[in-house]
Each structure stands twice: as C-alpha cells, then as structure tokens.
Design goal:
With 114 residues, the protein is of the alpha+beta class. It has helices at residues 8-14, 53-59, 63-78; strands spanning 21-24, 28-32, 40-46, 84-86, 102-106. Strands 1-2-3-5-4 form a five-stranded antiparallel β-sheet, with helices on one face. The N and C termini lie far apart (26 Å).
Length: 114
Amino acid sequence: MATDANCLFCKIVAGEIPGEIVHQDDRLVAFRDISPKAPLHVLIAPRDHQPNAAASVAADPTIVGELVAAAAVIAEREGYPAYNLLFNTGAEAGQTIFHTHLHLLAGGITALPV
C-alpha cells in the first residue's frame, strides 16, 4: 500500500492526525470535512495513497466502487436518502489535497466543495 509521509489524508488514515471518523474498513476511511459545504459532508478516502480518482482506478479498478458503496452506507446511516457524490481531480477542478477522496454531501449544498 502506497503512503506519502507529507500527505494530510495519509496521516488521518494512519491515525497520526485526529479526524472525526464515521466509517472505516481495511481499504478506506471516511471522516467529516472540517469545512463542510452541507449538513452532511464526509470525505471517503482509500487507505492507499494515489493523487486522484483516475490514478486510483488505474492502480485498483475496484476502489471507486468501494468508495461509492461506502457513501451509500454512510448516507443511509446518517438519515439522508438523497445525496451528492463528487471527485475533484486536479488543482484546476478545486482539488487541494492530492490524495484520492470522494465527497459525500447531503442536506443541501451551500457551495461546491474545493
């Protein structure tokens, strides 16, 4: 499994930096966004460090499906039957942490996440 010692999300996944973890398994960790853009704003990140969703799929074609499946479980558990999913891929698309992560948003989006 790839990691990056300078990556904020790698540190959260490893438990080196606290995060409000809402779901985890052997392949991913989900935690609340510290600057939420909706009442429910969770980031779902693979444990394996890849810089973006395209790189993650190239390394492991099943991981995006696992992220989406986790989002469905979390949304249901949090009481949101309708939700949005978003990957930002590249700085020009608003990606600021270059570790693949899926945004799960529900309850009314106040602004697109960056």
